[in-house]
Amino acid sequence: MSVTEHPASSTSPSTASLLPVAILLWLAGVYLRIPILVAPPLAPFIGDELALSQTLTGALTTLPILMLAIGAMPGSLSISRMGPRNTLALAMLVMVIGSAGRGLAPDTITLMLTSAVMGVGIAMMQPALPALLPRWLEPKNLALGSAIYMNGMLMGEFIGAGITLPVIMPLLDDSWRATMLVWSLPALLVAAALFLPKRDLARPTRKAAWLPDWKNPLTLKLGLLLGVSGSLFFGVNAYLAALLEQRGEFENLTEALFWYNFAQVVASLLMLKMARYWVGRKAPLLIMLILSLLGTIGLLMFSGWWAIASATFMSFTAGILLIMMVALPPLLVPASETGRLSAGNFLVGYTMAFTVPMLGGLLSDWTGDIRHAIAVMIAYGVLVSPLAINLNLKRQ
Hints:
It contains 17 helices and no strands. It is an all-alpha fold. The protein has 2 domains: 19-193, Growth Hormone, Chain: A (Up-down Bundle); 217-389, Growth Hormone, Chain: A, CATH 1.20.1250.20.
């Protein structure tokens, strides 16, 4: 069922300041990743207190990533019934309940259940943000809006992973539970602040369709290409320690992870400048896709700091590719279709981002060579690259 849109009469984005909207988009973007990325540094403390196995300790990070795929459809349904702003606020509330609940979990089962709830909340946030952009921004600012909240997301990755142990935990008597709460609860203020902007440029007046439109080739194509960026970034992040250990270079891991994650921050800063020039154009997308694969190949071919430099280069280009892919739905389809196209893309993309590295890990367990896990990710990227060549980037 279609959605009728009409302009809001109260506020024009050409006369109202965009700064408050930009700040809200950025803060919402931060909470797309901080709740996930605080788990790895806290995992040893959580594992010791709750006696977690290595598999369950790893699940603190991998389970929410899997939920990013599963929870995309509830987000799309909520957008069609409640609108993107209400959905984003509800999703942030669900995320806080799950994320803060992890800090209060008395046992392993509760910890895993709250991690899953947190993942569903973040999954619902993901399609809500691109669906909200056409309702808050003029068409000429859509790419910039995407770059702003994606910058927040990638900064959230770096902040969550980077300052949890050296800064936050010492201030909280080294309590992992208090650290979880301190990272989670401020999101409630962001959720409340979402209702401050009075603009709604494309207000839905009827219930919209919410299931992915599988007849639209963009649903599958954009999703599979999004999966390249996700599988490369999360996969190399997961296996880099094992690869360096296999090569006898484990002492380089701390510096390697720092530069690997920092590269995505640099990518997001660059896209704040270049989004309006690159998003929606096929050539930059193809170039970043190819460079991401070349960087991953370099990680396998080289050793020492050349390998780490190659991985960092891949992270940088994959970050740009991610932003360009996520920014496409608001540019390619009407506002009424943006939510479900984004949800379909995230469903496919994060399913592949979870499945491809897992299959690579199974292969490496069988062969005893961790390089085969990364080779599987490269093979997937090569297989789906032709989709980018035939991608139709004209507005439907």
